[in-house]
Amino acid sequence: MPVPRTRRATPSCACARPDVLADRPDGTVVRHGDVVAKSHARDTDVPALSARIAVAADPLLAGILLPPLPVPAARGELTTVLHGRPLSLWPYGRPVDPEDPDSAPWEEAGALLARLHTVPPGALPGPLPPMRGPAKAARAVARMRAAGPHPATASVLRAWARLPAWARDEAPAYREAPASCQAPADDAALCHGDLHLGQLVRHPAPDGPWLLIDVDDMGIGDPAWDLARPAAWYAAGLLASEVWDRFLGAYRAAGGPAVRRDGDPWPELDVPARALTIQTAALALAKSAAENRPLDEVEEMVIEACGRIAALPPEFEFEPRS
User: Fold this and answer.
1) Hey, what's the torsion of the CAs at 197, 200, 205, 210, to 10 degrees?
2) Residue 287 pLDDT > 50, yes or no?
3) What is the per-residue pLDDT across 82-104, written as a single tens digit (0 to 9) for each?
4) Which of 76, 140, 245, 259 is the most buried (most CB within 10 A)?
5) Which tops the pLDDT comparison, 61 or 77?
6) Residues of 93-126 as b/e, b for ≥16 C-beta within 10 angstroms?
7) Which of 204, 250, 209, 226 is nearest to 63 (CA)?
8) How far is the C-alpha of 7 from the C-alpha of 220, rounded, in Å?
């Protein structure tokens, strides 16, 4: 009589299951335990990304930017290429809770930006690429154009045409700075390039200090651009004045150079805030077309703000940046 074979038990894995945090054309972010892997866009400028990640690892940015982790498969390098896309690894940090807006770290965000902007660019590993804020705005407008006609598109394009060339990514932000930004203008600074509350995490999780994340757009440029999104929300009526005052006050108190220390900050913020308003409106039109849905209330408010920008009299045009 044959002896029955016993089936060997498959050992169970006690490790955490991967958790997809984001999956967009410009990047896929997956958490596995205490490590987060980011697969960057296929068209990423790899040398520029490597330079940005090297800055995040620099001791001068400790306590400001979340530091990257070495990639084991790349013999300790900070980036590698997997399936045709650049890959980087980061420690997990607890993000801002979208369900608890009253606890949003506006003061911490302002102070972190001020510290970032006061890091001497010449002391960092380089050459550093330009900050990609204007490029992102131009890409949003191109995406809106490609989405097809919409009754609001014309006013967004009229507002876009009112911006100076540097804010439309059609000219260098600083005429004297070479493309590599090895010798930036005196008022240029190290910028995040895409500041919003989703770019802050607590590390170590869950209660460590707040740090900035996502260096894909970081580089040398106009520091006012990093204040532009909150400024645009405030101007459009989407951010309460007391919240804006807390954010701007914390930035000024920490010595941020983007705006004057007191008084009216809008001479420095006006152009970047308009550009971010237009970028947000353009993305709203593109996304609503792709999802075949009407605009929501917030999107309508941003588009109305573009209409006000487009209707400004000629004396509100901007002089070319010197």
Assistant:
1) -110
2) yes
3) 999 999 999 999 999 999 988 99
4) 140
5) 61
6) beebeeeeeeebbbbbbbbbbbbbbebebeebeb
7) 209
8) 62
Distance, C-alpha 20 to centroid of its chain: 20
Using CA atoms in the order 238, 242, 245, 247, what is the torsion angle rounded to 10 degrees? -70
Q: 24 has which bridge partners?
A: 27
Q: Would you say domain 97-316 falls under CATH 3.40.50.720? A: no
Residues of the chain with CATH 3.30.200: 15-91
Q: Does domain 15-91 have CATH number 3.40.50?
A: no
Bridge partners, residue 86, by sequence: 81
CA distance 76 to 81: 13
Contact status, residue 89 vs residue 70, Cβ threshold 8 Å: yes
Confidence at residue 8, expressed as pLDDT on a 0 to 100 scale: 46
**Residue 317: CB atoms within 10 Å:** 10
pTM score, whole prediction: 0.89
Tens of pLDDT, residue by residue over 185-228, are 667 999 999 999 999 999 999 999 999 999 999 999 999 999 99
Cα–Cα distance between 102 and 43 in angstroms, integer? 38
Q: What span, in angstroms and rounded, lies between the C-alpha atoms of 186 and 206?
A: 39
**CATH 3.90.1200.10 segments of the chain:** 97-316
